[in-house]
Amino acid sequence: MKKLRILLEILIVSTRLGLTSFGGPTAHLGYFHTEYVRRKKWMDEKSYADLVALSQFLPGPASSQVGIGVGVMRGGVLSGLTSFIGFTLPSVIVLMIFASLLTTFNIADAGWIHGLKIVAVVIVLHAIMGMGKNLAPDTPRKVIALLALLGTLLFQSVFTQVGVILVAAVIGFILFKNNEEDDHQSASFPIKKSAAAGCLILFFILLFALPALRELTGSYWIAVIDSFYRSGALVFGGGHVVLPLLEQELVPMGWISEEAFLAGYGATQAVPGPLFTFAAYLGTVMNGWIGGLIATAAIFLPAFLLILGALPFWDMLRNNAKIKGAVMGVNAAVIGILISALYTPIWTSSILQAVDFALAAVLFVMLVYFKLPPWVIVVTGALGGTLIGLL
């Protein structure tokens, strides 16, 4: 009875956060801190800081992983799953409905859809500016970011992006291996190391087995699951980085048009919850609501396996300067990947004339300097796109 009460409480709280948490991963972490640490007192400041640090270290959606971790620490693995469902489901439902409307009424060429594509330009640019200050603050990391930009821009394939991440990790390992940690800490997490190791093994088995099965069977559904799983598994730096990975996985295959892809990315900014729920929109456009659910499960599964697998080993990882150095290199490369994605496909498909650039400039000022919430930017972008369509 007590476990059921804990599950119900977690579901209610996480669903409320899923309905109200606008603003991206950093804002989500602020909402979580207010709710879980200050109000509910489910964990102390130190434990929450440890969990946030781990989520930043791992690939995948940071806010979702923190939410899963909070649930796990509150009541075990089932509570972690409940927390994830509550936080994710509201935006999944909204984006699946939007995708259904897009395909049913053939509104891909509507002016407000073009406005949403311009919103995507502004959102990604803002993300690059914010992340660049933290992830590439010195000359060596700026050079890594530049090399990542050149590689992903000139040689566009999913293999290039994976290669860039691996090379950046090696460079970071070499350059920053003597980086001194001044925050050696320890924490306790309620997961056995054997179970955690099983999750990590399953993560890598799926990462390498799905592409092989895709080639051997030629199955469409295995190919879809592989594309979304691999995108979710290779994303360092937050939800915005999943954009270029998904775009290069789905658009060249002809599974979704570039216009529909960018329209959905813009719409994703208008809903609360994690940016990875963009997969729900993509899957629904491709294969209806079943496709939306499968795509969502596939893209979030790596995050779930990684957070469960890494929790008991976090002390060893975070206090290892060499591993931290590799992560510093990867994080710098993320900036280059984002800039590459900003140019193509986002900029080249959205800024087609002077008036498009003007609208983007207005939206950028509203977001960065007036600090208006993202949903206001999205609504303004949609209205602006409609007006442009009437000109």
Automatic annotation (TrEMBL):
Q: Where does the record place it? A: Cell membrane
Any transmembrane segments, and where?
84-105, 111-131, 143-175, 195-213, 289-314, 326-344, 350-370
User: What's in the keyword line of the UniProt record?
Assistant: Cell membrane, Membrane, Transmembrane, Transmembrane helix
The UniProt entry lists membrane topology as:
Multi-pass membrane protein
- The principal localisation class reads membrane
Signal sequence extent: none
Matching NCBIfam families, A to Z?
A: 2A51
For this chain, the family text in UniProt reads: Belongs to the chromate ion transporter (CHR) (TC 2.A.51) family.
Q: What is this protein called?
A: Chromate transporter
Organism name? Jeotgalicoccus aerolatus
